[in-house]
Amino acid sequence: MDGFQIRIEFKELLSKLTVRPESILKTAQFAIDYKSFHENLFDCIFEHVHTSNVLERLNLLYVLDRMVSMSNKTKFQGYLDLVSQNLIDIVDNIVPNNSTGLININGLKKVLKKWKVVLKDSSEKFEEIDKKLELMEQNDNNNHNNDNMNENNKIKPDHQHHSLQQKRKHSKVNNVEKMTDDVIMKRIEDDRERHKRIKEEFWLTFRKQPELVFDRDFESDPEFNDCWENFSDLNENDKILLENESLKYKDIMKT
């Protein structure tokens, strides 16, 4: 494929991107497979970020995170350099400086924690980002505290003061990016799917192997004696069966 076709296919993958790990991995793997066009593909991600709402941008961050991880393993510096150079812009787009930006802040922190290990030359940028995120959370806490103080205030505001408060609230709402119910519900489903995938990692359990007992008195064990007496001798049919099972096992190991 030429550069134009690669760009079109990658944009299509981005438009169909979901929270599912398979979708994120497929998109990141495409970028790695065509890493000779890394600047072009990286621009596609930024273009898609600008046209996506804040709730959808977290999935794009996870694509970048997977690309960083795969580039680090394959020693490909192209995407690592681009992420490092545009680190501040990435954070500003994933977590814009408004109320909606706080929605993605926890997911962003987890990704940045991993990037700090890989992108060691960007320590100053990480410090700047940490200060920004800390300030955003602090301002959000202050706003919540002020709201609680106003609600607990025993002095009943007059009509003029009440109207002023309503205007401020209305202005604050207009400054925040408007999100439809469908977008909010989609983010809830995405978070639910993401949390389910995380929990699946803890569902894997290993069966404990039984302890071998060497001092057991088998001669006095009725169950053992019954099996010993009734178990048939090894014959030609048993040998054929064992050979067939061995061939099946070898075929499975080849696949």
From TrEMBL:
Domain CID: 2-142
Record-linked Gene3D superfamilies: 1.25.40.90
SUPFAM superfamilies assigned: ENTH/VHS domain
InterPro entries xref list: CID_dom, Ctk3, Ctk3_C, Ctk3_N, ENTH_VHS
Chain residue ranges for the region called Disordered: 138-171
GO CC annotations on file: CTDK-1 complex
Gene Ontology annotations of biological process type: positive regulation of DNA-templated transcription, elongation; positive regulation of transcription by RNA polymerase I
PROSITE patterns in UniProt: CID (PS51391)
Protein name: CID domain-containing protein
Species assigned in the record: Clydaea vesicula
Taxonomic classification: Eukaryota, Fungi, Fungi incertae sedis, Chytridiomycota, Chytridiomycota incertae sedis
